[in-house]
Amino acid sequence: MLRVTVLCVLVIATAATALSVDSNPEYVKQCSRSDPKLKSCLIDALHHLRPYLSVGIPEIELPPVEPFRMDELTLSLTGGINGYKVQLRELFVRGASNYTVEDIKLGSPFEAIVRMPALILDAHYSSSGVLIILPASGNGTFHARFDDPKALVKGTVSTKVKDGKTYLNVENLDVVLDVKKVHMRVRKIFNNNRILTEATNLFLRENGQEVLKVMEPQLKKKLSALFAGIVNQLLRHVPVEVFLLP
């Protein structure tokens, strides 16, 4: 998940440096291509940027990461005519800015490995169909916590020369997500029907990893589009020669 897609954050960090080399704002930790420990410098720059990503950086039109919002996810959790279907709307995800970059491989294709202590997801919840043997159509709230998520991010970058300057564009992002523990629950559903609420939460407790697998393709698509859009909006205005110093 997101977020988190560390390569996106890397490009945002370099773009922030690019826009502000002369004034050297407090959120920038500069790096040089001649530094024999360039990769370590870039990782340190990413970690330095975390608190600023959390609240946003208006001067470079970077919105806050905490929380970031998605529109909806639609999940089919069981099959059949009366299969159990869930729609999550107005999703808010927290924890993406509290990342640790474990490794990066620069170039195209690029790779990055990032960890976070947890990702927290809250949303409006609606369901339809039959859960186990109980009719389970209703509305309420949904809460999930993904503990110790690790993401392997891969992608490609294209270049374009304009007015003698080189510009980057992130073309593709692919995220392979590994989550150690999944906690999910619903509240205030089925007009606070205790039996249906407990049955739903039992299902979510016992099938958390399976529910996450159903969520993952949509999450990957939405998060990739979100972060690639932010990154490329910046990179369209920032040549490589500016943010990768001698």
Automatic annotation (TrEMBL):
It holds the Pfam family JHBP. Residues 1-18 form the signal peptide. Keywords: Signal. It comes from Xylocopa violacea. SMART domains: JHBP. PANTHER family: PROTEIN TAKEOUT-LIKE PROTEIN, RE70318P. This is Circadian clock-controlled protein. It comes from the Eukaryota. InterPro entries: Haemolymph_juvenile_hormone-bd, To_sf. The lineage of its organism: Eukaryota, Metazoa, Ecdysozoa, Arthropoda, Hexapoda.
